[in-house]
């Protein structure tokens, strides 16, 4: 039976399955399983999450805001905000004085990462008080100091950072898997008609297989490596992705049209689609990716099985059909594992439609490579890993 990986966004996310074996490991052989690019059981959590030395983006000549800044306003004060966000490593887009969606996402990331605002309370608004603090010296440090390039993804905050020699070169707001656990219960489970056009290794197959599947929109925590990338727009079984780069089977970081304040994808890490146009230039295949899970555990505390995505399964209530619908999904009760589910009829109707998408102009300003450092220091909880059934 063809296994399908659950991942990507409901609106502009996609789907790809890949069980390809990673190349030989280098510096973290003791942590990563080279056949699965996931962590081994019971690795050691680093004794500290703070680098031995850090540098800080200095204070600037301060100005005062005469109004609040938020999405839709424009002016020189917005241009000053975009300039400061870029200096700190965030990605507000081109410094043009227009407070658009990318600038709003950069402000969300600043609120959640630096101000420690819970993600649900981020406003995307800059008051004069916030602006005064933003002009002070700001430090954003990695939780896992490493030479070279690595990525840290904080699912509780919905923020991801690319660190180069422990300086943040790109800080972005993200939207990960909608499900906060991997449980196959009614709240987590979705069912949808999909077209399977690749095999388990991500290779194209001669004849696409149309079927109805169910899944859980979950992003696991753990330690991974980037292992494969696609440039441009890729259309998968669950939709489209811009410039995906994969790190956990079919789970990728990719661009999307819709990157809301809360987790909303099928399991992938969504970013603003304009940022995805340059994201692959910040990282490399084989770079380490640390993912802090929604349960607050450290990346090294997840067992090998707990780092696996929840793979899709055939919908046991589906009827055979020759048509397919790829734009909607419905939540259903999870299928019991010990008893045959009650039979219902589910008919997929529709003709698959293709929506033309126009890529906006690339507006991402390359972040200034000023070393900045924060380091949310989360003490590793002394708890045993919960059991999972991917």
Task: Describe, in plain words, how this protein is organized in 3D.
The structure is a single chain. The chain has four helices and 17 strands. The model is unreliable at 1-42, 321-329 and 333-390 (pLDDT under 50). The protein has a five-stranded antiparallel beta sheet, with no helix packed on it. It has a five-stranded mixed beta sheet with strand order 6-5-4-15-9. It has 390 residues and is of the alpha+beta class. Strand 2 (32-33) and strand 3 form a beta hairpin.
Looking at this protein, list some descriptive labels:
4 helices; disordered C terminus; five-stranded mixed sheet; disordered N terminus; globular; five-stranded antiparallel sheet; 390 residues
State the end-to-end CA separation: 16 Å
DSSP summary: helix tally: 4
Outline: globular
Radius of gyration: 21 Å
Percent in helix: 10-25%
Q: Hey, roughly how much beta strand do the residues contain?
A: 15-25%
Order of helices and strands, N to C?
EEEHHHEEEEEEEEEEEHEEE
Quaternary organisation of the protein chains? single chain
Biggest sheet: strands side by side, in what order? 1-16-8-7-17
Describe the largest sheet: 5 strands, antiparallel
Break the fold down into its secondary structure elements and pairings:
Blueprint: E1 4-5, E2 32-33, E3 38-39, H1 76-88, H2 101-113, H3 128-134, E4 149-154, E5 159-164, E6 167-173, E7 189-198, E8 204-216, E9 222-225, E10 228-229, E11 233-236, E12 239-248, E13 251-256, E14 269-272, H4 273-279, E15 288-292, E16 311-314, E17 330-331
Parallel strand pairs: 4-15, 13-14
Antiparallel strand pairs: 1-16, 2-3, 4-5, 5-6, 7-8, 7-17, 8-16, 9-15, 10-12, 11-12, 12-13
